[in-house]
Amino acid sequence: MNPVVQEELLRQTLYWQEQAARWQRSSAWATWCYGVLVLISLGYIFYQLVEARKTREHAEKTQRFKATLQVFDELYAEEVSDTRRYIYNDLPDNLDGLRHRTMKRYFEKCETALMAFDRVGFLIQKGYIDHRPILGHSWTMVWRCWQRTEELVLWARESRDDDQYLAHFEYLFTLSDAYRLEEGRNEPRIY
Question: For residue 84, which of 35, 36, 169, 184 sits 20 to 30 Å off, Cα-Cα?
Answer without folding.
Answer: 184
